[in-house]
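Predict fold of Serine protease Do; 309 aa.
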Amino acid sequence: MKVRTSLLINSLLVWTIMGATVPWASAAGAPVSAPAPSAVTDIPGVIARVSASVVAIVGKPEVKGNNRDNRFNLAHGTGIVVKADGWILTNAHVVKEMDNLTVITVDGKQYAGTVTNMDEESDLALVKIAATGLSPAKFAANYSIKVGETDVAIGTPISVSLRNSASAGIISGVDRSVSSTYRLIQTDASINPGNSGGPLVNLKGEVVFTYGKVNRPYWGAELEESWAAVVGLPTKEPLRIIRVEPGSPAEKAGFQSGDVIYSVNQASFTTLVEFNELLKSYLPGQTVEIMVQSGGDLIKRKVTFGKQP
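Predicted 3D structure, encoded as C-alpha cells:
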C-alpha cells in the first residue's frame, strides 16, 4: 500500500485504491445540521474524542518458508470499537491471513483477538477480544456526505508504534466506483500502510456510514454493462444478462442469457454499481418485479431473492 494524494473509501473504514477496497452500505436520508464555524477548526478535539475507539491490530502473516519464525515478520492494521464488551470492526484483508492476532487499545493494553465473522466481498471482519468497558465509536445517523467537507482519518500507519496517528483532508468526491462493486467515497486525507480498518470521521467525531448486518439478496444472474458505463461515461444503455446459474432464483423466474433488464420495482439503473446499490435495499426472501426485454418482448417478471451462497 502506498500514500496517495486521493483515496477511495467506503463504509466505516479507510482504505486506498492500492489496497483492498472495501464496499459496504451507503449512507442515506436527510443531511444532518452542519457543524458550527468554530467546530471546523476543532480537529484536535475530534481526534481526542475518537481515538479512544481506535485500536491497532498486529499479528504474524500466514506465509510459507523461513520467514515464519522471524519475530519481526509482522503485519498490522487498524480497527474500531463497535461494542464496549470487546467487539472490533476492521477490514477483512487486515486479518484474513494473520496468526496470533493481538489488539492494542489506546491505553497500550494488549488483548488476544479472534476473528468471529468475515465477509471478503465487503472486506469487513469482526474481531472479539476479552475486554469490557471499551469506548464504542459514535456512528453518523442519516448523514449526507458532501464534497468539500473536512474529514479526519485515524489509524496505525507504518508501524504499531505510530498507532492512533491522524490525518485530515476533505471529501474529494462521492459515488465513485473504481474497480468496485459498490459506490465509494474519495478523500485526500493522507493514508499510509496500516491505516486499513481505521475510521474516517466528520467534524462531529462521528464515523461516516451506518452499520448493519451483511445479508445480501441473491438471484443468480451475471450482468454486463455497456462500454460507456465501463469507462465511466454517462449512458442510458441497460444491463444485459450474460449468464444464469442453474437452479438459481433467476432461472426459476424465467430469466435467461441475452435478456436486457431495465428496472427493479420501477427503479432504473444503467451500471453494475447502481444495480448492486439498489439490491442493498432488499433482503433474502423478498420478491421484486423486474422489467426485462426477452425475445423482443418487454415484460415484467417476479423473482424471490435467495441467500447468498
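The mean pLDDT is 76.
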